[in-house]
## 1
Amino acid sequence: MEATVVKNAGSHYLLSHLPQWAPFPAVLRGKVRLERSGATNPVAVGDRVRYEIPDQVGNDDKAVITEVLPRSNYIIRRSTNLSRQSHVIAANLDRAILVVTLYFPEIKLPFLDRLLVTCEVYGVHPVIVLNKLDLYRDLAPEQVGAFCDIYRGAGYTVLECSALTGEGIDGLRALCSSGTSLLSGESGVGKSSIIKALDPTLDPKVGLISEAHLQGKHTTSLYEMYPLQGGGFIVDTPGLRGFGLVDLEKEEISKYFPEMLRVADRCRFIPCTHTHEPGCAVKQALEDGSISPERYNSYLGMLEEDKKFR
Ligand SMILES: Nc1nc2c(ncn2[C@@H]2O[C@H](COP(=O)(O)OP(=O)(O)O)[C@@H](O)[C@H]2O)c(=O)[nH]1
Ligand SMILES: [Mg+2]
Ligand SMILES: [Zn+2]
């Protein structure tokens, strides 16, 4: 029998035969644990698994996961920058919804750009959601316009919304109505509020989970999938500061900036780091305004960081 993992609580799991929503408990057979020792968790939310219901008494009739089926994609988080340990947040995702706010909390573009690069690396389609428009659209319309220009210009979808007023929520609901969406973004941007706005029957805790609380080992218990009334499934990642980046060679990083990838084959030198090389098409695009200075700065920051950790 096959099912999908809808909750990962340490060594206990809930499975459901998606798209049918009827979760039942499951445990992991020791053998599966060993085979997947690369990550701290061998099974993640969204994983398709094979399971058996054992006939012997004393197992509380829990299903036993015997095999994890191949993933179409997944998103990981590195425990710390220097640690080699990784934690799979979720697997088999149709998209990642990256929630940001221009203010309250104030956005850090390099942080968003890092999330976008991670999505590109792992083959998860990112969608940017600009939330809390009610707080600052009238006060800072130029900033809202500039933000949308940068990211739409780079080729991303940007949805403008407010979980408070409901503006833009219908569009987001339509987007999420098929497949599985991962909701990510800094603590306080309104992820839990957005889930509630998408489906008022759901009740993820709004504004309650402290960041410090989530740094330890117990983060596993907090990845959970919710069925949306309008169709589709959503995975909340409470308090997560983001997901970790893989090791990329410095010539590789720009491949995950779609607007750079589009022009890079016209650089005179290949590979090109798009920094000091003459005849660089990326720097030319930067000069004529088709690549934004903000995105290019994030790229330079990632090159620098790459040096630091090597
Ligand atoms: N004004 C306004 N406040 C919001 C909006 N969305 C969320 N909030 C508030 O922002 C705070 C953090 O929201 P929460 O959903 O817990 O964020 P999370 O940490 O990303 O899950 C709460 O006080 C929410 O009421 C919005 O669209 N507009
Ligand atoms: Mg939350
Ligand atoms: Zn170049």
## 2
Amino acid sequence: MHVTTDSGTSETLLSRRTMLNTSATAAGLFAVSHPLSSAVSEEAAALRVQTVLGSVPAERLGVTLMHEHAPLVDWSELFETSPAPIAPVRSEMLAKTAGLLDAFHHSLNKSEGPGAVVETTPIRVGRYPKLLVDLAKRTKVHLIASSGFWCEALAPQHPWAVRMSVQKGGVDRMAELFVREITKGMEDPSGSWGERYTDIRAGIIKIGTSTYLRPSERACHIAAAIASQETGCPITTHTTTGGGLEEAELLLKRGASPGKVIIGHQGHMDDRENEEADDYHRLIARLGCYVQFDRVGHAEYAVPKQARQIVKLIEGGFLKQVLVSHDHAPYYCPNYAAAEKRPADWKAASPDYTTATTELAAELRKMGVSAADLRTLLLENPQRALAFAVA
Ligand SMILES: [Zn+2]
């Protein structure tokens, strides 16, 4: 792939790396060499990030992509149909996805690596904990898995979440489920709902809203706020063309800590009216929450547009509350509502997990963002957002 550098020349990722590795003055994305010791790292030292292979000190993550799907997404259970078969494509999925994550890892130099990816596929929409462990073992990139339920955007709410959202005491039971997934291990989707559990822990809670907040989504938000308050685990959200401010306000009202709330999918029509809702982003940031530009590389979230919006937040004094990612999924099953699925139903893509660290980073530098600020954005902010006192 091609990136445009500050000098206006175009070069491949490979040649950029060669340049970085051989240049005496350049130290990778951040161009200045300084140790990882800052107030942030000291504070984070007591806290850890919970990956699928166990907890690690936050400063070991390196550059972290905060909202990705790897290897897959499958909405079948939302339509009460069986998920697409994994076994026939499992090894292909692992090899291909590990290759894509390795490309991200290799795009980082030593002071930026090894790299981490937050896998934001929540309960029963293609989250297979054992598959994530096998993937993590095949790449140097750390993988952080999600508890939580998805929303009603583009598909119904999961029937398990609907049931808990209407039952007496159901929201508390949902919160208990999230806490269990964070402190003991995630549910194993090979059984019926809640029947079996793994000992693989989640390191973040993923929830979301459709265009407007639906009753089941409200239940998931309240449960997430309770679980986050109890464990310290961060919450990350899906938004659907707006709603991020309402999400943040609801989560905070229900006890979540602003520094553990990440409002996602920002960067396009976030106030439901304007393509670039800079004022709206500032309102979320003023609450103390993170504003996450996690669709870098998607058509309507063009890189220069995302960069402009990020720079506006930095100018407003909110550098430490900006996060980035791509929201890519190498595999998904488009026939989710079909009663029967075949291995051939899997749709595969080869998404690029390096756009944020190459194209977006170059654009931000071009717009005057310093190397140190870029490091804060790509490396230190994720550490702070993801770290908590792991049990
Ligand atoms: Zn996503």
